[in-house]
Specification:
Layout lengths: L1 E8 L7 E4 L4 E5 L6 H13 L18 E9 L12 E7 L4 E6 L2 E2 L3 H4 L5 E4 L4 H5 L2 H15 L3 H20 L4 H5 L2 H33 L5 E6 L27 H32 L10 E6 L6 E2 H4 L2 H23 L4 E5 L7 H13 L5 E5 L14 E5 L2 E3 L1
Parallel strand pairs: 3-13, 3-14, 8-12, 12-13
Antiparallel strand pairs: 1-2, 1-4, 4-5, 5-6, 6-7, 9-10, 10-11, 14-15
Helix pairs in contact: 4-5, 5-7, 7-8, 7-10
This protein binds adenosine-5'-triphosphate and magnesium ion.
The site of magnesium ion has 4 residues, from helix 1.
């Protein structure tokens, strides 16, 4: 699958245009403030239906317009292997009335999840460093996006969890009796335990790759990623999920044991969550807010040292944090390859600006060596375009006008 055509209407400063994208991708070159990041933002909007820069939808409508619209035409690389994947995804947002409309192959979606993930894109951007330097909420958002796009059922459990949490917090805040608050507990526990389990599994499955990517880019230095669930449960040191329920998936073609193990893991976590809520009860009633649950999870990112491990957030240099952020994006791309069997569309927004030459070179080698699909990258200068030097066509952008 590749992005073969992109149609832009009133998206930020970009002029209204329809672009045919080359199969290998493109390098978009332009001075500061000409619209390079806006271009990637428009593409990635079709993947997640939101801005990768954290902008609100209305901010992306061109100043002199009321509605933006972006549409992508997707073309199969290998027609037979693509199955029933869509060939057109479009999204529009109207400022007046704040209405979002998403269509897949011309049919309007009724649920958000139907519109997500069709491009199989990963975006690398300078703001990614916030994944490492920022607070736990940044890392939870990252987990939620990766899992929503790749783990069946995650998004709906997360949405349920958030809705129940909202009601429970409202009850606590209003000073309702303890019984009215705890009436929400079982629904909170059931959806929350699934969120925790999916996060635990994903982090554990990709922790080794995170370390390996970090080591390759930094020429051998070690880094570690571990899940810090707010509800602590007894975890198996080998696979990160609850102790004692590990199964050998290969010896189990029917997946019967897997389903049973899932249920057992869910039950173990639910039990721990229930106990944590009981412990926090007095405190919650006094403070008027839900104090335990996956809405307070974190992912710990550390430098592996000779004597001690150091949190990258507190002790990492700028380059070390950027490298860790890149490693997170690389495991995101790996997840797409594994879970969807597709080569991800890689969007690189001027990411080498603050890395030393050696690191930049090794990242490019990595991205070239991995099974990546199209690459769309932006850079202010021609000299910064080192990736796929010989094959990536160059486009220019000036004041929002792209010259292909
Ligand atoms: P840099 O190299 O500095 O990162 P860039 O080419 O990535 O620059 P963009 O972030 O894409 O630049 O922004 C380009 C311009 O778009 C900015 O000058 C900004 O004022 C403008 N802009 C942002 N939002 C809107 C909007 N809703 N309508 C019109 N213009 C907008
Ligand atoms: Mg930019």
């Amino acid at each position: 699958m590749r992005l073969s055509r992109l149609e832009l209407r009133h998206f930020r400063n970009l002029s209204n245009q329809t672009l045919e994208l080359p199969p290998e991708g493109v390098a978009l070159i332009g001075d500061n403030a000409q619209g390079k990041s806006n271009f990637l933002e428009a593409i990635y909007y079709l993947e997640t239906l939101r801005s990768f820069r954290g902008a609100r939808d209305h901010q992306m409508v061109a100043f002199d317009a009321d509605v933006f619209r972006v549409a992508a035409t997707l073309t199969a690389h290998e027609p037979r292997s693509e199955g029933a994947r869509p060939s057109e995804v479009a999204a529009a947002f109207q400022k007046r009335g704040r209405k979002k409309k998403v269509t897949v192959d011309g049919t309007e979606t009724t649920r958000m999840s139907e519109g997500l993930g069709h491009l199989a894109a990963v975006v690398f951007s300078p703001v990614d460093v916030e994944l490492v330097s920022g607070g736990p909420a940044e890392r939870r958002r990252f987990l939620d996006i990766v899992l929503s796009l790749n783990e069946h059922g995650y998004l709906s459990q997360l949405q349920t969890y958030r809705r129940v949490l909202h009601h429970r917090n409202a009850a606590l805040k209003a000073g309702q009796p303890a019984a009215a608050v705890s009436a929400w507990n079982e629904r909170l526990i059931s959806s929350g335990a699934q969120v925790i389990l999916d996060r635990a599994r994903w982090i554990d499955t990709h922790a080794a790759a995170f370390g390996a990517y970090y080591a390759r880019v930094s020429n051998g230095a070690g880094a570690r990623m571990t899940y810090r669930p707010n509800v602590s449960f007894d975890r198996d040191p080998d696979d990160g999920v609850p102790a004692g329920t590990r199964v050998d998936a290969e010896a189990d073609p029917q997946n019967q044991t897997q389903t049973e193990a899932d249920a057992a893991d869910h039950a173990t976590i639910a039990e721990a969550f229930r106990a944590a809520l009981a412990d926090a009860r007095e405190n919650e009633l006094r403070r008027g807010v839900t104090l335990v649950g996956p809405h307070r999870d974190d992912v710990r990112l550390q430098l592996v040292g000779k004597d001690a491990d150091l949190d990258l957030r507190d002790y990492g240099s700028g380059g070390q944090r950027r490298t860790a952020a890149l490693a997170l994006r690389l495991i995101e791309a790996e997840t797409i390859r594994e879970r969807q069997g597709r080569r991800p569309l890689i969007l690189l927004d001027d990411v080498f600006a603050e890395l030393d030459e050696g690191r930049s070179e090794r990242i490019l080698e990595l991205i070239d060596a991995e099974e990546t699909g199209q690459v769309v990258l932006t850079a202010p200068k021609d000299a910064d375009v080192k990736i796929r030097r010989d094959v990536l066509p160059r486009w220019r952008i000036r004041a929002g006008v792209i010259e292909a």
